[in-house]
Amino acid sequence: IWDHPGAVTLLQVLIMAGLLGLVARRLTQVGVPWWLTVAAAWITAALPMVGATTITVWKDIPYSLAMVWAFAELVDLARDRDGFWSSWWGPLRLGTALGLMWALRANGKVTVLIFAVALAIAFWSRWRKLLAVGGAIVTVGILIPVVLLSVLSVNPGTIEPAEVFLPDVAAVVVNDPGWFSEADRARLEAIAPIDVWRDRYVCSDSTPLVFDPRFNHTPPRENPWEYRSLVVRTAISHVPTVVGHRWCAASFLFVPWPRDGGYLHRPPFEIPPNTLGIARDSISGRAYSFTLAQYQWIEKPSVEWLTWRPALVILAGIATYIGVAVRRRLRPLLWAGGLIGAQLLNVAAMTPAHEFRYAFGIYLLCLMSLPFWWLIIRPDEAKIEPGGRLDSAP
Q1: Short-list 313, 319, 337, 318, CA closest to 256
Q2: SS3 187
Q3: Which range among 83-92, 113-122, 151-160, 218-227 shows the weakest confidence by mean pLDDT?
Q4: Which of 101, 103, 119 minimizes the C-alpha distance to 111?
Q5: How many CB atoms lie within 10 A of CB 149?
Q6: Cβ count within 10 A of residue 306
Q7: In terms of Cα–Cα distance, which of 101, 99, 98, 73 is closest to 87?
Q8: What is the dihedral of CA 31, 36, 37, 41, to 10 degrees?
């Protein structure tokens, strides 16, 4: 339709604007004042971190957009559970949003499966409508991508799951190198010399290790089950080491200040040389100066804890849903919070480095959840229909 990367970023901006408007509408429908929901949407959209990330060409952006859509449908589910399941339209919308999450990121399947199981357990008597949710997930998440990949000349670029957890193995190489058998050492050395595993390992960032020129990704792709077995055996026999590594890798989600020598990856300002015609060519010099000043300010190390690091926003989101759980009338909203929780666990278990894009969807939804504090303080203003059946309770 438009063969230029600018088409991708423009489309993402338009979808982001529409979805923030949809979430604002859903929040208003459950009783939050319209002026507060509109302000939340405008503030979220105006944050330089949101703008800079939205216009990047990363799969994390459409994935996060699908997550925002699923969140909006779950707020609608919380508002009127009986009404939501009484028609086919609501379940199909929710299933389509979850299907997009399944299709757009390999580890998105984990979040979708967690949530699909939770829905099946809680609403088991609505099995016909649950089948609609499941059918939409399968159609959008599996069947349509298969058809598209067969029709279009596209390389899906999937990654071998064992590669995701090689930094966990590296943590054990550093802390207990004598544990590995000769066969396991041979498998490790087929990828890289042991000194590379040991010297290039950084718990908060897998980049120095896995992008080292001496690191060969071919063996785990050619013999996946051998390396999957190695990952599982290593994790089971070294639970404290692996948990410690996971905490270090995921600490940017919960700790506002950076680790000593750590770096939080975010969208780069410089545009590398390319053959796609991507260049910085501002339409308005005045607008460019204004946005450049914003970008330069948020990049300052002294304010990183407030700008690029997502921990404060995530902690505020967690506090919001603790407040929701305390108010019995608001507990159906935990369905929306559950999506955030499932994605948070997913990222914490699999993140290879401190990167803002991995937390982008969580960041957006935590920001848009803050208006729930109006209902936490004034629960009588909540417009949430009581579920007519026991299986409708979250």
Answers
A1: 313
A2: helix
A3: 151-160
A4: 101
A5: 12
A6: 12
A7: 73
A8: -170
